[in-house]
Amino acid sequence: MPTTTDSETAPESGAPATAPAIRFQDVEKRFGDNVVLKDLNFEVSKGDRVTLIGPSGSGKTTILRLVMTLEKATGGYIHINGEPLTHELRGGKRVERSEKAQKQIRKRIGMVFQQFNLFPNMTVLENIIEAPVHVLGQSKEQATRRAMELLESVGLPNKAKAHPLQLSGGQQQRVAIARALAMDPEILLLDEVTSALDPEIVGEVLAILRRIADTTDITMLIVTHEMQFARDVSNRVLMFDGGRIVEEATPDVMFTEPKHERTQAFLHAVLGGQEGQIGTH
Fold it and tell me: Is 125 a domain residue?
């Protein structure tokens, strides 16, 4: 299980060279009286691919939203490459960092959402170059060159002038992947990226993500219900239930010999009793 660290020892500002890409330290997230995450401690090393599995409502997507600063933790600390993300320990107190500091770190992180989140009034090309131009300060020409390379890599070189609503769901998700990669992120967050797709086009999107995993050193934090994809891509798999990690293992162990009863029951329900055979055919 991940090592728990007392929040009183949370480091002041300053990033050690060997710091993990992502570190959750005693993180809590509440929505009113509902505690979604409590005493969450885990790390993702640079270049690792870590997949979070578990039932709906177990806190998996909330974790991604915290890393993307779409939500703020109500307790504890999140560090990106050793730097505090939204809060830091200063003078013995938990203090929120400036929006400017948060934005600087957020530039290193890309996210692909369930529902694509493309701007419908913009063309595909405009969707991809928007952030590189306005956030990274790239020239339009530089951003466009990179966008066209990425569209080629996701199999959509002829869709640059199309609008999102002219594309299929699978095509929109491929554009969303290209848009995330256009920021040259060090960390890529994937939130159930195939859940809104028709079953027959899930494979084409997963193939692109497998290729990214095989050909880059981008750190990935993944939430998915595609267990075969989780096994193929991940270095580690974390099983969540009730906002806590109940089991952590390599994919081979998690999907063939899970130890925790809750993990066994979840995988049996998801895989129909085939958890011991996944990836073996």
Answer: yes
Is residue 6 scored above 50 in pLDDT? no
Query: Domain tally for the chain?
Result: 1
Distance of CA 274 to the CA centre of its chain: 27
Residues β-bridged to residue 93: 90
Residue 146 lies in a domain: yes
- C-alpha angle with apex 88: 84 to 89, nearest 5 degrees? 140
For residue 224, give both structure tokens: 């998915």
Contact 238, 253 (CB under 8 A): no
Per-residue pLDDT tens digits for 92-117: 999 999 999 999 999 999 999 988 88
DSSP one-letter string for 45-78: -TT-EEEEE--TTSSHHHHHHHHTTSS--SEEEE
Domain hosting residue 143, numbered range: 109-184
**CA gap 107, 173 in Å, rounded:** 21
In the chain, the N- to C-terminal Cα span, in Å, equals 30
Query: Is the Cβ–Cβ distance between 169 and 194 less than 8 Å?
Result: no
Token duo for residue 245: 């990690």
- Which residue, among 180, 70, 164, 67, has the nearest Cα to 130 in the 3D structure? 180
